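User: Is it possible to get a 3D structure for a protein together with its bound compound? The compound here is guanosine-5',3'-tetraphosphate. I've pasted both below.
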Amino acid sequence: MNFQWYPGHMTKAKRQMQEDIKLIDLVIELVDARVPLASRNPDIDELGKNKYRLILMNKADLADKEKTKQWSSYFKEMGFFVVSLDARTKNSMKSITDIVMEACKEKIERDRKRGIKNRPVRAMVVGIPNVGKSTFINSYAGKACAKTGNKPGVTKGKQWIRLSKSVELLDTPGILWPKFEDQSVGLKLALIGSIKDEILNVDELAVELIKFLISSYPGLLSERYDVNESGDITDIIIEIAKNRKCVSKGAEVDYSKAAALVIDDFRSGKLGKITLEIPNSQE
Ligand code: G4P
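Assistant: Yes, that's possible. Here is the predicted structure of the complex:
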């Protein structure tokens, strides 16, 4: 995933979303459960004001369950409906329609009182790149991909996926741009592999990850790589390189290979279920 945002790009994406949002009742916002704040662009709150809101904490299979619960409460307190899920598995989808209906129940009730029947709730998926928007749409829509045509009053070219009698989904997700102003946001997005143009190189990323793991998940590195966590971070990486036979030509210890190994193990979940941020922390 390689993306570079520049003002023209952002303005276009934002304008498109402003148009699309007019057509819907509910914003389904995907965030990455390992970095639920860093993977949000708070501008969505302005763009999506007056809309019903559902936050999907995706990639929950890779995140720390306890922290996912804390984040779920955090978002609920902010007035969002929240579901944590693994968008790749179809069985996570069963509950989504129920939650969508629940989130939009005021509108459904209002329609009912006015005698309007069978007007589906309309939703769109939004999120920064790589959070799993396409995966979610595919899993959720499944075989229900029968697309509805253009309708009077609906912007030309918009395709809706009819999920049931009660829910229609816009088939293209809205792309939000990550908010990089803060160094730590860039770091977290680089760690989860969302940005190719990392703000730091792999060696530096590994140092930051190891620092974080030692303080937030003590024992985890020593268990996986048989290293002494109280040492200097550089020494820890050298120890990992030795234990994991990360050597380059001439049997020299390959520091960068060990750094990349730690990052890969984290991204693929081999290091365990890890969440990089907790609600209301200044980190
Ligand atoms: P996007 O539209 O928001 O840009 O994201 P997309 O669906 O393309 O998903 C980005 C990557 O995240 C994909 O992996 C996808 O399989 C993975 N993914 C999506 N949802 C989940 C989830 O809930 N859990 C986990 N563990 N992974 C998820 P990829 O490496 O780009 O492709 P591939 O491995 O599927 O081939």
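The longest strand covers residues 26-32. The two ends are 26 Å apart (CA to CA).
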